[in-house]
Amino acid sequence: MTEGRSHLKVEGPPPESWRAARLLMPMIDAHRRARGPYTVAAALLRRLVPETLDRSAELVAAHDIEIRAAAPELAELVPARRVTIDAGLSDDERILVPAPRRTLRLANGLAEFVRDAVPPGRALAVCNLAEADPTDLELLDVLARRVPSGTLALLLCTGGPEPPPDTRDAAALWAVVDRSMREGFLHTVAELGERGLAKTEPGGPSWWRFAQRTATALGGLGRTAEARALWDRVREVSQDPKMHAAAAYGTAMLDARHPDPARRDLGRARRWINLAIAVSSLLPDPAERAFKLGFDRNGLALIELRRQRPEAALALVESAIELARELGERHPLHRMVLLANRAQLLAALGRDKEALDDYGAAIALDPAFPDHYLDRGNLLLRLGQHEEALADYERAMSAGPPLPEAYYNRAELRVTRGDTAGALADLRRVIELDPGHLDARINRAGLLAAWGRDEEAAADVAAGLALAPGNPHLLTVLGQLETSAGRFDTAAAALDEAVSAAPGLAAAWGNRGVLRYATGDLEGAVEDLSRAIDLQPQPDLFGNRAVALRALGRTAEAEADERRAGAFS
C-alpha cells in the first residue's frame, strides 16, 4: 500500500485514535466473505453516488461502467450509458472473458470519480484489510496513489471483527461467480468457483458451469497448473462430449496463450486442440457443431500463428467464418472475434485494405468494444492515415474506463507527427494509470533525454530499471545521460551491457559511438556508428559519423556522410 503523510496503514485492529478523525462515513469492513468483490468500493459508492447525482449527474454518467460494475445495486440510479453487445446475450453466447487488467481500469475510473465527488478534507477508515478481495486492495492502492490525502485520507488496518459464517448455497455462489466472470473479477471466480464445485454433484450441469468458469479464471490469472488439474478433473468425472471438447480446448489454450514464450508447448497445444476439433465435429446438433468447430479452429489458428504460420492461421479463421454463416443472427460476439482475428492476420500479411474492411465489420457488430479501435488505429498509423488513427484511439478512450494502451498509442502517433509535448502528456497519463507500464517509461525517458530534461529522464530510467533490471532500451538512455554528464565510466558500463543484451538495437550502438568519440576513441566511434547505421539509418547517425571521420582526416568519407544526412530532410 502506498503511504503518504496522511494515509496510514496499521497492523491489527483499528486504533482508538481514529474515532477522532473526520470520517466521510462509518468505518467500512473490507472482509470479502459477506459480499466478495468491491466490498469497500460498493460501500463508498453508496455513500457518494446519490448526493453526487443531485449536483453533478454528468460526473456519475461519465463513470457509469465502473459504478455499475462495483455496485450493481446502484444500477437503477445509474443508467448504462455505454453498453457492449454481450449485455443482452444468452450465457452460451458470452464468449469473451475480460483480461485481469480490467480491474485496474475500473479502479482508475473509480478513483477519478471519488476524487471529484468526495467532500474534501475527510478520511476513509477501512478495517479487515487482510481479508479484503483483490479488487478492493487494488482500488485502495490506486486511491492512495491518485487521490490527494488532503482530499481523502485513507486510514487502513489489517484486523477487524470476524464476520458471520458464510452460509451461501451453490445457487447463491453461482450468482456471484457468474457476475464476477462477466466483469473480470477472476480472483473471486477462482475462489468461489472451487467452493461451488464442492457443493455440486461432480459431472452434473451445475458442477460443469463452476468447473468451466473456475478453470478459465485460473488460466487467466496465470495459475496454469491449477487450471490444468481442473480440466483433468472434468475429463475424469464426465463422459459428456461437449465437456470433453471444452476441456481439450481449455487445456490447449493454457500452452498457446502462456505469457512466457519459452514455456509454451505448441506441440502439446496442437494435440489437445485437435482432440477438441475431433469431438466437436461429432456433435449432433448442426448449429452447436458449427459454433464449436469454428471456436476450436480459431484456437488452432492461434497455435499456427505462434508457430509463425500466418497463412495457415488465416485459412483456419476463414473456415471458422464460413461455419459462422450457419448460425444466422446468433453468436454475434463469435463473429466479431473471428472478423477481428482475420483483420489482424490480413494486416500482418500486408493485405491492408481487406484488414480495414474486417475491422470495420467487427466494430459495427459492437461499437462499444474498445480493443478493435486500438488495433485498427495501429494499422491506420502504419499506413500514415494519422487523422483516422487519432479518431480510433480517441474512440477507444471514450468507450469505457481509463485505457492506458489508448494513450500510449496516441503518444506514438504524436511522436510521429513531431508533437513531443503532446506525446509526453499522453505518456504521463499512461504512467499515472499504470506505473508498471514499462514501455511508457522507456519512451518517456527517451523523449525527455532528447529534450535535455535529464533529471526527469533519469527518474524514469531508475523507475524502469526497478521494473526490468538490465533492460537494454533503458540502459541506452542511461548511457546517453551519463555521457552528457561526463560520467564516462558508468556510461560505458551501461552501453556495453545494452549492446551485449540487444545487438540489434541501433540506438545502443549509436550512443556508444558518441561516448567513444567523447573519450577520444575515434576509430571505435566510427565502428559503432557504422553498426548503428547498418541497423537503422538515421540522419543524426550519419552526421555523428561524419564528425568522427573528419577528426580522423577521412574528409571524403565525412562529406559523403554529410550528404547522406542532408538527404533525409
Q: Gyration radius, to the nearest Å?
A: 27 Å
Mean pLDDT: 95
How many H/I helical runs? Answer: 27
Find the count of extended strands (DSSP E, 2+ residues): 4
Structural shape: globular
What is the share of helical residues? Answer: 55-70%
Strand content: under 5%
Class per helix and strand makeup: mainly alpha
Q: How can the largest sheet be summarized?
A: 4 strands, parallel
User: pLDDT below 50 for ≥5 consecutive residues: which ranges?
Assistant: 1-5
Spatial strand arrangement across the major sheet: 1-4-3-2
Q: State the end-to-end CA separation.
A: 50 Å
A few lines on this structure:
This protein has helices spanning 39-55, 57-62, 64-70, 102-117, 134-146, 170-183, 186-198, 205-220, 224-237, 241-256, 266-280, 286-306, 310-324, 332-348, 352-365, 371-382, 386-398, 404-416, 420-433, 438-450, 454-467, 472-484, 488-501, 506-518, 522-535, 539-551, 555-567, and strands at 8-10, 28-29, 122-127, 152-157.
Detailed description of the structure:
By secondary structure, the protein is an all-alpha fold. It is 66% helix and 3% strand. The chain is built from 27 helices and four strands. It has helices at residues 39-55, 57-62, 64-70, 102-117, 134-146, 170-183, 186-198, 205-220, 224-237, 241-256, 266-280, 286-306, 310-324, 332-348, 352-365, 371-382, 386-398, 404-416, 420-433, 438-450, 454-467, 472-484, 488-501, 506-518, 522-535, 539-551, 555-567, and strands at 8-10, 28-29, 122-127, 152-157. It has a four-stranded parallel β-sheet with strand order 1-4-3-2, covered by helices on one side. Helix 5 (134-146) links the parallel strand 3 (122-127) and strand 4 (152-157). Helix 4 (102-117) crosses helix 5 and helix 25 (522-535) packs antiparallel against helix 26 (539-551). The chain is globular. The two termini are 50 Å apart.
